[in-house]
Amino acid sequence: MSEAANEALFIVDMQAGFFEDEPLASLRAALVESVNRLSAAARRADVPVFVITTVHSRDRSTWTLNMLDDDQGYLFSGDPTTALVEGLETAQATQVEKTRDSAWFGTDLHLRLKNLGVNRVVMAGVSTHLCIAHTARDGYAMNTRMSVVTDAVGSERPDYEESVLQQLVDDRQATLETVDEVIARWTVAAG
Questions:
Q1: Do residues 59 and 72 lie in contact, with contact meaning Cβ atoms separated by under 8 Å?
Q2: C-alpha separations of 188 from 9, 31, 181, 191 in Å
Q3: Residues 83, 88, 13, 186: what is their CA dihedral angle, to the nearest 10 degrees?
Q4: Are 120 and 7 in contact (CB under 8 A)?
Q5: 55-48-89-107 Cα dihedral, nearest 10 degrees
Q6: What is the mean pLDDT of residues 111-140?
Q7: Is the four-CA dihedral 80, 82, 86, 87 of positive or negative sign?
Q8: What is the pLDDT of residues 169-181, one digit of tens each?
């Protein structure tokens, strides 16, 4: 079994609603290109791809504390904000919906990855300081090796991004890679 066979790609929250405001709006095209390159390489290397989105119910049952406190929900099922950003290629990807920052919370991702024999997750998407970081930390807590693709993630708080990534590395909860490094590794592993 190749090294790539033990990996999965998580594409996190690449949804229209997250790209409405700056600075993510200005990063959208570059992120879509980077994520599409990763997805294509994953397909070539038989690495499973999971497109993870945030979707909430209008009845408040899935709202986070800040949504409840503000009495304002968002990312409702069926709204245009929950759609994937234009140009994102997700053919053959598995869709998973979440309601919290961590992709592991309240989802069956752990079971899915166990069934596939995955022990390392490569992450791309938004937002680095929230959903990417929480997913990395929770994956680490479940003994899954986590990797953040630094040129395939973005944040509406770029001032936090570098320090959050460094903290993940310092705490040994994730490694950092570039798109080119991941693609090269998967290409070699696929033989």
A1: no
A2: 17, 24, 11, 5
A3: 150
A4: yes
A5: 0
A6: 97
A7: negative
A8: 999 999 999 999 9
